Amino acid sequence: MALSQQRQEKSKQNRLIETELTHHYLVADKVMQLFQPSSSSASTEAKMNVQTDNLVGDFLSSINTNSDINFNALVETFTDSEVPIYPANFDSYLEYLANNVVNHSINTSSPRFIGHMTSALPCFVRSLAKLMTAMNQNVVKIETAKAFSPYERQALAMMHRLVYNFADEFYTQHVQNNQSTLGILVSGGTAANIIALWCARNKSLYAKNSFAGVEKAGLAAALDYYGYQGAVVIGSELMHYSFDKAADLLGIGTHGLIKIPTNGNNQVDLSALRQAVADCQSKNLHIIAIVGVAGTTDSGNIDSLLDIADIAEAANVHFHVDAAWGGPLIFSEQHRQKLAGIERADSVTIDGHKQLYLPMGIGMVFMREPQLASAIEKNASYTMRKDSFDLGKRALEGSRPGMALFLHAGLHIIGLKGYEFLIDAGIEKTQYMAARINAMPEFELLSEPDINLLLYRYIPQSFRELAVKKQLTESDNQQINIFNECLQKAQRQAGRSFISRTTKTITYLDKEISVTALRAVIANPLTTQDDIDAVLNDQIEIALELSSSDSLEVNQSQ
Ligand SMILES: *Cc1c(COP(=O)(O)O)cnc(C)c1O
User: Phi and psi of 376, rounded to 5°?
Assistant: First the structure.
């Protein structure tokens, strides 16, 4: 009995060792296979491509915006934290991906997904994504990105030219001059805003006489040397929260970000801005920058950039424009005058992954003065030499991918006129939606759209008469707020269409009240007037269901 047990144990051990050994060879073999470049159509990679393309096709062709899986149930499927021991087959991994991830991903391309700044992409970016990943260029330096460095500079110069429109000689001199920086390509608008304020801070608190400059000596020493009580950045209360991050990182703290109230049209109040500048000057606070917003994230409104440019110029302060969303209006003859004054900005942020219809990860910051970015330049003897062409020396990020490929391609394959068409069409459709909302008793438009963002709300039946007469009480408005919150959540959960939600302070009967607003972003080129009608009808249907059930309470707690 004991003997046979021993034998059994022994053979089990042998088996284990044996399988591990076999697996060792199998693992090496399998892993090495993954690295073989393969061009034949019968190759493993070609099969992977076909399978993945099918998955992409299925995903993009669905009109629904999402599956209706409960989020908590979804989270439950991602709780295992053990790394798999042996390499899995691509087929089985793709199947896992399809069932667990792709199936429950948001279809940001759906023509009825009209509540977010992320939307459909042109098909060429999917093909070029393969090329970009395959080449795996690292744009941090020319040793890993020989063609990509000047290629990126050219694409950025094209955008710079649209913003600033300097003479030919300017571009001839600076496009490929490694001492000049016309723009920096980063991961997004957040990083772009941070870099702009970083440049502004370093340039304004520069090295002088015995003082080494803020870059080397730090903020405390800089303020001390220049005799300031503190440092601030000033802009509208509707500035994107990336400015809070920037203020934090730059050492002025988020309390150093001065937020100026806005007028009824969501634009910075100019007299309050002038007053704030004067206050800071009298308190001996150093103003690092004044920020103008060209397309607020909430409602798309554009600050009066010309006036802000005047204020900044008079105060001799860096003028930054956050045009992450609204920047691409420069492509439109009809609408570009809404950005008048942007050409006077010292720096401008534009997101390529928003209204240039490029994949995520294309933030850009442009500089009026090509030497500005030297204020943040860093060199490293082993890689980033001073006179080199390396793009990493004037950047926040280090290694980064060749995302410029998409920008350069978009500027050619869509072109100036193509982008103009897309921008104009989005604004036109937004006006259509605003007109529909105005004509429907179920809805109330909350502000006239400047561009292609729209705020409105649903008015439940029992409040409609009072709403039309503008006689809603504060408690009526609160109830309407709760209803709209439930409506938006129920719509998102149903997954047939999507509108986002925000909170807006408005003046109602001479009183400031907080309103829950439904927020439409009409940027998807695939969205038609029929889709807009369908989304509004979907909301009416859901609202009726909500009114007739007591699910309101339940939803509120989500
Ligand atoms: C989107 C946006 C940002 C932030 O950009 P990310 O690309 O999300 O980092 C900043 N400002 C405005 C006005 C935006 O719309």
Answer: -115, 10
23 occurs within a structural domain: yes
Give the tens place of pLDDT for each residue, 522-555.
999 999 999 999 999 999 999 999 988 755 544 4
Residues 210 and 303 occupy one common structural domain: yes
Query: For residue 132, is pLDDT > 60?
Result: yes
Q: Domain check: are 432 and 513 in the same one?
A: yes
**Which residues, at least 6 apart from 270, have a Cβ–Cβ distance to it below 8 Å?**
304, 307, 308, 311
Nearest residue (CA) to ligand 1, atom 3:
189
CB of 242 shorter than 6 A to ligand 1:
yes
Same domain for 178 and 252, yes or no, is yes
Please give the pLDDT value at position 147: 94
Mean pLDDT score of the chain: 92
* Torsion angle, alpha carbons of 523, 521, 305, 284, to 10: -130
Reported as a pLDDT band with limits 50, 70 and 90, residue 38 is confident
**Domain end position, chosen among 390, 414, 438:** 414
The tokens describing 256, both together, are 């150093």
In this structure, the answer to whether residues 514 and 374 fall within a common structural domain is no
Burial class (CB in 10 A: 0-12, 13-18, 19+), 270: middle
- Sort 424 into a burial class: Cβ within 10 Å, 0-12 / 13-18 / 19+: middle
C-alpha of residue 321 to centroid of ligand 1, in Å: 12
Distances (CA, A) of 293 to 99, 299, 300, 327: 41, 11, 9, 10
492: domain CATH number is 3.90.1150.10
Q: Please work out whether the CB of residue 322 comes within 6 Å of at least one atom of ligand 1.
A: yes
Read off the tokens for 463.
Answer: 């409040």
**Count of CB atoms within 10 A of residue 117's CB?**
19
Other C-beta atoms closer than 10 Å to the C-beta of 10 total 10
How many other C-beta atoms lie within 10 A of the C-beta of residue 427? 22
244 and 368 inside one domain: yes
**How many domains are there within the chain?**
3
Q: Residue 227 — pLDDT band, cuts 50, 70, 90?
A: very high
Residue 557 lies in a domain: no
Ligand 1 centre to CA of 189 (Å) is: 4
In terms of domains, do 435 and 402 share one? no
**98 and 172 fall within a common domain:** no
- Separation between Cα atoms, residue 272 and residue 286, nearest integer Å: 18
pLDDT band, very low/low/confident/very high, at 512 (cuts 50, 70, 90): confident
- Pocket lining: 189 vs ligand 1, CB cutoff 6 Å: yes
Q: How far is the CA of 79 from the centre of ligand 1 (A)?
A: 31
pLDDT at 4: 56
Q: DSSP readout, 416-471?
A: HHHHHHHHHHHHHHHHHHHHHHHH-TTEEEEE--SSSEEEEEE--GGGHHHHHTT-
> What residue numbers bound the domain in which 35 lies?
2-120
Question: Within 13 Å, how many C-alpha atoms sit on residue 486's CB side?
Answer: 24
Residue identifier of the C-alpha nearest atom 5 of ligand 1: 189
Query: DSSP secondary structure string, 26-77?
Result: HHHHHHHHHT----STTSHHHHHHHHHHHHHHHHHH--SSS----HHHHHHT
The whole-model pTM stands at 0.92
pLDDT of the residue at 232: 98
DSSP state letter for 369: S
